[in-house]
């Protein structure tokens, strides 16, 4: 009797392992970008991204459909940021330039989380300096908050003792790769160098 129970237990374990293998391998097979992914999102990539309505550098209202019409690298920051944002945006611009040299086009996008100060004109000056194709987006506080929520980013204006025009904004620092028809596919932390970022993005572009 004990031997029978042992055999049945072994069969159950084998069956369970087989089921896990089929499920996990099946998911990998269905994901054409599996070999490119270096990060994981709780709940899946579908938890990040979505519709938004913002204002571009010319003052025109645009939607996510207008913006993500080609592979797009999105960053949330603000032009008055003293150090982090300029560095991250410049790193993104460098990665995009590396890809351009390989014949791969990615649109760099900078979404302001400081709509009080970041006018379309202010954004144009900032993005034009970093890359000729970088697109700056702003909007009403409500529009910016909705876009930030869609991409699960964080930002919070800090009080200032130097007057209303001099304040910092705490914010998250991820960059998001989004593809037309696919949406969000990968995020990049700020410690990744431009060449490595370009390599990973290139993998996604090759798999499209």
Automatic annotation (TrEMBL):
Keywords of this entry: Copper, Disulfide bond, Metal-binding
Residue pairs linked by disulfide bridges in the UniProt entry: 81-85
Highest taxon in the source lineage: Bacteria
Keyword flag Disulfide bond: yes
Pfam families, alphabetized: SCO1-SenC
UniProt-recorded Gene Ontology molecular function terms: metal ion binding
Binding-site residues for Cu cation, renumbered to this chain: 81, 85, 171
Homology family: Belongs to the SCO1/2 family.
Protein's UniProt name: Protein SCO1/2
Organism: Pseudooceanicola nitratireducens
